[in-house]
């Protein structure tokens, strides 16, 4: 019988079930019981988590986890796992249906989605690397059984996301990019670290780029009392016309990446590739051992990453089922 997954002892078993899929069947980083509880079960002020499980006696055979983000008419599907010995017997389908019903009951949602907008982020490990991880799985791995499972349960692909990876030990700016950097002077353009004494126009840049997320993060960073982490900009006689950074190394050795953006009036100079390569070099210099990032299948930013030597290491599908 399917029931809510709320008991701590069931959470421990569900965490173990989840851990058994990692490192092969799925690429997620395993979670301790406490991390599992915090990630899948504990709601916050804005995110309501909903879980269901199937038990045989006291043994958890499978679970499904989702959430609702206040103000969004979407039920996010975060995770579903069925014990290997009980697969292909309809249990996954029943768990998913129970989760969908519970999500629908909890809020007036219009669709169920598997997407990077899900506020619950799952860390995953790039296969074949020494634990190099990325803090968010932006959809369902198209190479996993789960992908076909969702397709066969009425979910449609909406967009694809590609994850890019590069170890930084051997990174060097390519001659073609260096030539481009050298040629910027002709246009009174230059690339370097943002300096509030010499540069201006950051707000206007973020208004042009239209991302509140970037604006909040980057302007918040440069307003910090300690000056914040370095931000790399492209500028035209001092006016900021592009950004990337802020640069810092995460505990895992990953070079942090918030984003990259070029003002719409300055997109003809190849500044995106320049900024990105300078970012990689700066991250390497401050001790980052690798970088990961993802972008949409059709986003031209992919050429920037590929021209800097990054490889696609995973493709994810975002999926949706509309509620009729
Ligand atoms: C995905 C998962 C939960 C499916 O559980 P399940 O109980 O086997 O699913 P069901 O029996 O309800 O399958 C329903 C349908 O999905 C499709 N499906 C499920 N697994 C499939 C597979 N390995 N290959 C192809 N189709 C598959 C089939 O159409 C199936 O119907 P059928 O058996 O009549 O052909 C299970 O494989 C699992 O735990 N995988 C590891 C964790 C994971 O990757 N989760 C997804 C991340 S969110």
Counting copies of identical and different chains, the oligomeric state is single chain
Instruction: Assign the CATH superfamily of the largest domain.
Output: Gcn5-related N-acetyltransferase (GNAT)
Low-confidence stretches: none
The average pLDDT is: 95
**Main pleated-sheet profile:** 9 strands, mixed
Broad shape: elongated
Termini Cα gap: 26 Å
Number of helices: 9
What compounds are bound to the protein? coenzyme A
Series of H and E elements: EHHEEEHEEEEHEHEHHEEEHEHE
| Derived structural class | alpha+beta
Radius of gyration from the CA trace? 22 Å
Q: State which percent range the strand residues make up.
A: 25-35%
As for the number of domains, it is: 2
Helix content: 25-40%
CATH architecture call of the largest domain: 3-Layer(aba) Sandwich
So what's the CATH class of the largest domain? Alpha Beta
The total beta strand count reads 15
Give a description of the structure:
By secondary structure, the protein is an alpha+beta fold. It folds into two domains: 165 residues, Gcn5-related N-acetyltransferase (GNAT) (Aminopeptidase); 114 residues, Gcn5-related N-acetyltransferase (GNAT) (Aminopeptidase, 3-Layer(aba) Sandwich). 30% of the residues lie in helices and 29% in strands. It is built from nine helices and 15 strands. Strands 1, 2, 3, 4, 5, 8, 9, 14 and 15 form a nine-stranded mixed β-sheet that branches. Strands 10-11-12-13 form a four-stranded antiparallel β-sheet, with helices on both faces. Strands 6-7 form a two-stranded antiparallel ribbon. β6 and β7 form a beta hairpin. The longest helix has 16 residues. The site of coenzyme A has 21 residues, from β4, α3 and α4. It comes from Merdimmobilis hominis.
